[in-house]
Amino acid sequence: MVDEKKIEKLGRELMDLSTEESLALKNHLADKYGLKESQPIITTAPTEIIKKEEKTTFDVILINSGGTSLQVVKEWNHITNLGLKPSKEMIDSPKPVTLKKGISKEEAESIKERLEAQGAEIEIK
Fold first, then answer.
1. Do 88 and 112 belong to one domain?
2. pLDDT at 3 over 80
3. Distance of alpha carbon 14 from alpha carbon 82, whole angstroms
4. What is the pLDDT of residue 24?
5. The CATH number of the domain where 88 resides is what?
6. pLDDT band at 116 (very low <50, low <70, confident <90, very high)
7. The pLDDT value given to residue 94
8. Domain match, 49 and 64 both
């Protein structure tokens, strides 16, 4: 019978290994148990692989400008300093509209909060 708690604990410990520790484990398994290079083994710490895949840039997408689009236009103008006319054209264009691309999560969330306070529906991708 498989001890699930033991497997879970071992899995957590493996996930916490650094790259150097993973390589040392690989070498230990090869020396002690004859594990060959052709057999699959982790040579990069799983947590480092996951960290590399974490998203670092985000897009702010306007789904709906709401019933008070003038307020959204004004707020968008404050955020971007584009001017009222370009801001209005962008906010009034067919939805969904990508307002900002490749920005930090903090900046995207700040923009979302400010525009939603004016009645807009915003999505961050």
1. yes
2. yes
3. 50
4. 83
5. 3.30.1390.10
6. very high
7. 84
8. no
Is residue 114 located within the same domain as residue 72?
yes
Q: Is the pTM of this model over 0.70?
A: no
CA angle at 66 for the pair 111 and 105, rounded to the nearest 5°: 20
Q: Are residues 49 and 62 in the same domain?
A: no
Nearest-angstrom CA–CA distance, 24 and 45: 11
H-only helix segments in the chain: 4-15, 19-33, 46-53, 69-80, 84-92, 105-116
Residue 100 phi, psi dihedral angles, 5° rounding: -140, 140
Nearest to 90 by CA among 56, 114, 117, 120: 120
pLDDT in tens, 97-114: 899 999 999 999 999 999
Tell me how many domains the chain contains. 2
Q: Give the pLDDT mean for 6-16.
A: 83
Task: Quote the domain boundaries for residue 42.
Answer: 4-53
Q: Name the one residue in this structure whose structure tokens are 């990508």.
A: 98
Residues forming beta bridges with residue 58, ordered by sequence position: 103
